[in-house]
């Protein structure tokens, strides 16, 4: 897989040891304000403001607090955290140390995707080296009384465990099922203690922001979506790989960069995202337009879009934890509907009912998995009706 780097933010130069020492010499509130002023929003998909999250966890009562790195990276089509965990592990660990300092935590956990077990050795070696340099452990960087250390917890291959409360359940040794919210992890997280859960990219981006300043970060992106973002680009394009682009890039410009100008559709945000057709390629990738955790799947003119919808729905049916009815029943029923469409036996009245079921799932499912499971189905039907309904369906 190729890596197409720019040197904007995430891939810009940073001297980890010096940047960490410099950060720990500042007041906690000052660091949190820097992150807040940068406008950084979580890079795992949901886009919650990182400074606010750290502030809430810092203000929460509790002798024991945790910093958890969400390295589950289960969204179909995303592989940018893999690059960060492999080549930028020091920056991730330093980012977690800074988060621990900001919220008053001594313990950090990396929740590593089961399929990334092969990375354990490299990550552990990086931590050993950082302990030797006094960047992890006791009195970090000479800061008397500040201690922070990290251990790695391996996931077992469930997509839903990327959802932060299911992740916490899994960390505690339970079935990976999402919790009711509130209470939120910032007050009641791992072992009932205040917990910050952030994506790999979020920690690294925050580390750069603290080193180079909020104003520097805001120079990239848009007013509502500041900075840059990593994109995992795959599918029918000449140059798939991991890219860093400013937020607010248009779909058309992104396709030009990756050699995918010929695309008939792009799935933005992975299976849980939205399928965008050519007439929408002028849209921007940003929280205020099309938000994404970074998965971009390009579909060339020859692709059968009903098969694409089927593939995604099979994934959701397999990964639904089954805890709530809209998702458990909805994923199965939508998949059956897609199969009827395939056989040209889906009456229009039933198709309308399926869309209505999808919309019900979006508002009534308990977690993001069920809420987003119908997105691809609905957007593909909207955009490719002519292709999918080209042949008459039964009565
Ligand atoms: C089904 C599901 C899977 C998710 N998978 C991931 C994941 O693999 N990595 C991730 O960082 N966030 C994932 N999330 C989002 C997390 O719940 C959470 O919002 C995120 O870890 C918060 O970190 P951030 O604010 O830095 O983005 C997932 C959410 C859902 C609903
Ligand atoms: S929406 Fe799906 S994955 Fe989420 S709690 Fe309900 S059944 Fe489980």
Characterise the protein shown here.
The chain is 43% helix and 13% strand. It has 395 residues and is of the alpha/beta class. The chain folds into three domains: 217 residues, Rossmann fold (3-Layer(aba) Sandwich), CATH 3.40.50.11540; 72 residues, Ubiquitin-like (UB roll) (Roll); 84 residues, NADH-ubiquinone oxidoreductase 51kDa subunit, iron-sulphur binding domain (de novo design (two linked rop proteins)), CATH 1.20.1440.230. The strands form two sheets. A six-stranded mixed sheet has the order 1-7-6-10-8-9. It is globular. The N and C termini lie far apart (47 Å). The relative contact order is 0.13. Bound molecules: flavin mononucleotide (FMN) and iron/sulfur cluster. Flavin mononucleotide binds next to strand 5 and helix 14. Keywords: 4Fe-4S, Iron, Iron-sulfur, Metal-binding. This is [FeFe] trimeric bifurcating hydrogernase, NuoF-like subunit. Belongs to the complex I 51 kDa subunit family.
């Amino acid at each position: 897989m190729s890596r197409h780097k720019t040197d904007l933010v995430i891939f810009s130069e940073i001297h980890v040891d010096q940047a960490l020492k410099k950060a720990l010499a500042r007041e906690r509130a000052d660091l949190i304000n820097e992150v807040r002023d940068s406008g950084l929003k979580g890079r795992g998909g949901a886009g919650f403001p990182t400074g606010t999250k750290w502030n809430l966890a810092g203000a929460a009562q509790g002798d024991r607090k945790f910093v958890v790195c969400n390295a589950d990276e289960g969204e179909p089509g995303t592989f940018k955290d893999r690059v960060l965990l492999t080549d930028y592990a020091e920056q991730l660990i330093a980012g977690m140390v800074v988060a621990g300092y900001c919220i008053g935590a001594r313990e950090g956990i990396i929740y590593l995707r089961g399929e990334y077990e092969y990375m354990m050795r490299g990550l552990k070696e990086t931590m050993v080296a950082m302990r030797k340099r006094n960047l992890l452990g006791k009195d970090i960087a000479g800061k008397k009384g500040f201690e922070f250390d990290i251990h790695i917890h391996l996931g077992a291959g469930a997509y839903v465990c990327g959802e932060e409360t299911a992740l916490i359940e899994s960390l505690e040794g339970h079935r990976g099922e999402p919790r009711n919210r509130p209470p939120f992890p910032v007050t009641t997280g791992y072992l009932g203690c205040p917990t910050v859960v952030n994506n790999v990219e979020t920690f690294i981006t925050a580390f750069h922001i603290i080193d180079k300043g909020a104003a520097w970060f805001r120079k990239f992106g848009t007013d509502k979506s500041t900075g840059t973002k990593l994109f995992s680009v795959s599918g029918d394009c000449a140059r798939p790989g991991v890219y860093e682009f400013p937020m607010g890039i248009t779909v058309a410009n992104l396709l030009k960069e990756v050699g995918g100008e010929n695309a008939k559709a792009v799935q933005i945000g992975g299976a849980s995202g939205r399928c965008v057709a050519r007439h929408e390629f002028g849209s921007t990738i940003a929280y205020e337009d099309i938000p994404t955790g970074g998965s971009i799947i390009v579909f060339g003119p020859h692709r059968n879009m009903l098969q694409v919808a089927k593939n995604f729905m099979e994934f959701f049916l397999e990964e639904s934890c089954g805890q709530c009815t809209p998702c458990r029943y909805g994923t199965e029923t939508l998949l059956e509907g897609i199969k009827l469409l395939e056989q040209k036996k889906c009456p229009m009245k039933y198709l309308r009912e399926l869309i209505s079921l999808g919309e019900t799932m979006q508002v009534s499912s308990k977690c993001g998995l069920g809420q987003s499971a119908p997105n691809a189905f609905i957007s593909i039907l909207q955009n490719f009706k002519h292709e999918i309904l080209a042949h008459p369906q039964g009565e």
